[in-house]
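Q: How do we represent a protein-ligand complex in a form that can be generated token by token?
A: Start from the inputs.
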Amino acid sequence: MKNIAKKKKMYIKTYGCQMNVYDSDKMLDLMIPHGFVEEKDFKDADLIILNTCHIREKAAEKVYSDLGRIVPIKKKAMKSGRKIKIVVAGCVAQAEGREIIKRQPAVDIVVGPQTYHKLPEFLFNSDKVSKSVVHTEFPVESKFDEIKINRILNNPVSFLSIQEGCNKFCSFCVVPYTRGAEYSRPGLDVLEEAKSLIKKGAKEICLLGQNVNAYHGQVGNKLWTLSRLIKEIAEIEGLRRIRYTTSHPSDMDEELIKAHGEVGALMPYLHLPVQSGDDDVLKSMNRKYTVETYKTIIEKLRTVCPDIALSSDFIVGFPGESDKAFDKTIKLVKEINFSQAYSFKYSRRPGTPGSIMKRQVSEKIKSKRLLALQKILNDQQLFFNMSFLNSKLEVLLERKGKYKNQLLGRSPYMQAIHVTDPSIALGQFIDVTIAEATKNSLRGNLIAINKRGMN
Ligand code: 5AD
Ligand code: SF4
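Then emit the structure tokens for the protein with 5'-deoxyadenosine bound:
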């Protein structure tokens, strides 16, 4: 296998969710032992991987437009004797399969999210055959066995995939079709990976899953829930922060809610998508909770963790959403007061029940509603950030900023904070005073470097 590539350059573009970011990282991990190095410019790469997202139509179309730019580079390179391989991975690969090769025959390999662990093998074989190949099976367990290798971390914040796939079948969503049935990794495997990440310098771990709070990982003849897993991980020496995403309101069990009050390392922030503030819309979305249930969960969370910052996803213009129904979403947003949120126009995804529902909403109305909703959400986000002006926040520094001596990190509430100071370093926890607040970020002035967070 070693001879498939000798220090070849690999470019990987990630679309969509954190799960894809995690998968892209793992693909890089898989290729490095086969002589690949990461390349940031696709024009110089020998291997180009597009790790795609299919959640909304726009995301999928973007892949085809990117392929339209990449394919001519491959053709030009071929004329000068340089071989470039193009791989389409991720959810578009899973959903469209051979259609991708029909539309772009220059694509060499199409590989779904459950088979990318075999990428080195696929590439090796594709050297021998000239035909493009499609791999979209669902052997999910073996994937997690294969992708345990981790590079030396250079980021104090690490993602850890613990659950994948989804059985919820929300009527707008392609995930159950592209990622398959829900699968939880065994508890001890997750614990082992968490320990190894922490050993390599992770101070914050974000547990990932499409429906992460449905986690039920096998340990002996027992099943660990997400709250159990969080408690186990919180015990590992050196770990300071835990987060998890993305959750479904129906899986917010009492233990998990309580954990927000009990586990110090569990950050006071939760992304809990409600999607709509109208019960009829929620019903036809197949979300299986009511607005009242959602509000009760939030109330309980705020009782155990009064400062918890809340985030959500919203879809506007789902089939059958009337003006009145949309007004109820606005009402709910005003009642809850989110620290941030994501909002989208409903996008018809082929094969999902929503796509064939009657009373589809016009683009014009969707746009109008999105604008109105985002105005309120943006104001709430700005207001939330402004409320920290002149107060102290702890930041975990995780990235370099644009300017000299500037580093970026996040507060416990997930706010992006930038700090400029010659004495700070990546991986440190520092206390800052907030000097400036905008919707998207905060600027902090260093008070002190928190020694507890240093190696
Ligand atoms: N149209 C618009 N938004 C969607 N989402 C999922 N499917 C669709 C769709 N068909 C949104 C949901 C979900 C987030 C990840 O993407 O709000 O929570
Ligand atoms: Fe999609 Fe619903 Fe599953 Fe989330 S819970 S991944 S929105 S089907």
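Residues 363-386 form the longest helix (24 residues). The mean pLDDT is 92.
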